[in-house]
Each structure stands twice: as C-alpha cells, then as structure tokens.
TrEMBL record:
Protein name: Ribose-5-phosphate isomerase A
Residue runs in coiled coils: none
Residues bound to substrate: 84-87, 97-100, 124
Gene behind this protein: rpiA
Organism per entry: Dyadobacter jiangsuensis
Catalytic function, reaction form: aldehydo-D-ribose 5-phosphate = D-ribulose 5-phosphate
Length: 226
C-alpha cells in the first residue's frame, strides 16, 4: 500500500531545497503545504533568513508557531517562490486546487510568485483534470445564479457544506464544487467560469505552476513546463 504521508514528506523536503536566504516565500495551505512549512520552520531555526506570506489563517498560525517571520500580502510586490499543494495536476502543470477552501488567497499568492512549486503525493497526477470537482468561490448573493450558469456549461454544482451548513470562506463567500466531467479544455473552462457574474475565483490554476514535485514511493519525480 502507498505511504502517501511519506510521499508528501519527500516532496516537501525536495521543494525546500529551492529556498535561499533573503527570499520572500509564499506558504501554501493543506496537508502537503503544512509539511513543507514544518520543514521551513526547521531551516529558519538553523539560520535560513526568509520571510513568509501565508495563504490562510491556519497557515499563518502554523508559521507563527514555528517562528517563521511573516509579511502581510499588502506589503509585498512580488514573491520569490511559493510552495503549495494541489488536488490534481496534469503533466503540463495545469492544476485543480481549493480542496481545503483556500483557493482565493492561494491564487493571489501564486500570481505574485516568480516560482510556484506544487508538492503532491502520487495520487494527484491525472491525464485530464476533473475527477476532483472544481471549487468555485462565489459571493453568497449570487449562488443560485452561478449554479444555473454552471448547468449551462454542462456541469453540476453543489454548495460545499460543513456540519450541514454552507462552508463560508475566509473572505465570507461560499464555495460551489463544480463537476464538469473530465475537462478537455481547462483554460477554456477557466475563462468561462471567470466570466460568470458573482464568481470571485475558481480552483483551475492555468499556467501558474512552474514545477510540480510528486512523491512516488521512496523518491520524487519533478515536472516542469515542457
Ligand atoms: O488547494 C488546497 C487548499 O485549498 C490544497 O493545497 C489542496 O487541497 C491539496 O491538499 P493536500 O496537500 O492536503 O492534499
């Protein structure tokens, strides 16, 4: 049986090799990113001088607990490198993110980043995105409209719930998990979702990742833009 936790650890250890002193580092969210943050905490303890930019409150709390110095996103113009996770990726580095509900901040941080390194276990690589649903962050007022528009795109949408109630994101929005089947044209779907009024952002990360490091058994595989 695959040891997915170990695969994430191996990927995280490989990713932090890209860090160097003086950098501003985006800190992702999710179980893989938290492993990387723990590694970064160790490196900081041993003298690595970086400043982190968190992608969620949970990440901020974790980084603070590890004494990683932090910057506010408002105070940075550019981020040198971000390490984050993903729910699915393809060989040409298109991603679905947002399983952990933090896609909006993750995409802002990724968009500011010169390098976006994604770390995953070996279950996340797919030929076509779409087995994992596409999270769509929506202002609550527009949720029924957006659900109807998703239908027009031949998709089905479901409001994400926690304990029987709609999950409210850190930005006060709701998430619709959109099922579009296997996605043949992720960039096209991303454009269509962006154009729906009331959609704040979605979890298709198109041409954003610069490298994916995937743990496989006892080693890692690295994917870069072809
Ligand atoms: O996008 C995310 C959170 O919004 C996560 O990076 C994604 O869900 C992967 O999580 P994990 O590393 O726990 O598998």
């Amino acid at each position: 049986m695959k040891d997915l936790k170990n695969e994430k650890i191996l990927a995280a250890k490989e990713a932090v090799k890209y860090l160097s002193t003086g950098q501003i580092v985006g800190l992702g969210s999710g179980s893989s990113a938290y492993i990387a943050i723990a590694e970064i905490g160790e490196l900081v303890k041993n003298g690595l001088d970086i400043k982190g930019v968190p992608t969620s409150e949970k990440t901020r709390e974790l980084a603070e607990s590890l004494n990683i110095p932090l910057l506010k996103i408002e105070d940075v113009d550019s981020i040198d490198i971000t390490i984050d996770g993903a729910d699915e990726f393809t060989a040409d580095l298109q991603l679905i993110k947002g399983g952990g509900s933090f896609l909006l901040k993750e995409k802002v941080v990724a968009s500011l980043s010169k390098q976006e390194i994604i770390i995953t276990d070996s279950t996340k690589k797919v030929e076509f995105l779409g087995k994992f649903t596409v999270p769509v962050e929506v202002i609550p007022y527009a949720q029924n409209y957006v659900l109807a528009q998703i239908k027009k795109l031949n998709g089905t949408g479901k409001i994400r719930e926690v304990d029987g109630k709609p999950l409210i994101t850190e930005q006060g929005n709701v998430l619709i998990d959109g099922d579009f089947g296997l996605i043949q044209d992720p960039a096209g779907l991303a454009d269509q979702l962006t154009r729906i009024v009331g959609v704040v952002e979605h979890g298709l990360f198109i041409n954003i990742a610069t490298r994916v490091i995937m743990g496989v058994g006892d080693s890692t595989e690295s994917f870069t833009k072809l």
